[in-house]
Amino acid sequence: MTDATPADVAALSYEQARDELVQVVQQLEQGAATLEESLALWERGEALARRCEEWLVGAKERLDAARAAAEGS
């Protein structure tokens, strides 16, 4: 996991957020973290997942707009 703050999640690219999310999941699956650390990882993971979703929704909207423009011409 990076040392970025939750506010920094909004600045991450899709790939950065996805890669960090994979790391968070791996750390949680190891089960070695304390309860407090696990909660912080979970919260970070949720924020990262939301960021990935934002990117995917935006990409879909762009594709839909491009298809609509192509069909309209």
From TrEMBL:
Pfam families: Exonuc_VII_S (PF02609)
Major enzyme class: hydrolase
Keyword Nuclease: yes
Location, primary (coarse class): cytoplasm
GO terms, molecular function: exodeoxyribonuclease VII activity
EC number(s) from the headed UniProt entry: 3.1.11.6
Sorted UniProt keywords: Cytoplasm, Exonuclease, Hydrolase, Nuclease
InterPro entries found in the cross-reference section: Exonuc_VII_S, Exonuc_VII_ssu_sf
Catalytic activity entry: Exonucleolytic cleavage in either 5'- to 3'- or 3'- to 5'-direction to yield nucleoside 5'-phosphates
Subcellular location: Cytoplasm
Family: Belongs to the XseB family.
Subunit structure: Heterooligomer composed of large and small subunits.
Known role: Bidirectionally degrades single-stranded DNA into large acid-insoluble oligonucleotides, which are then degraded further into small acid-soluble oligonucleotides.
Name used for this protein in its record: Exodeoxyribonuclease 7 small subunit
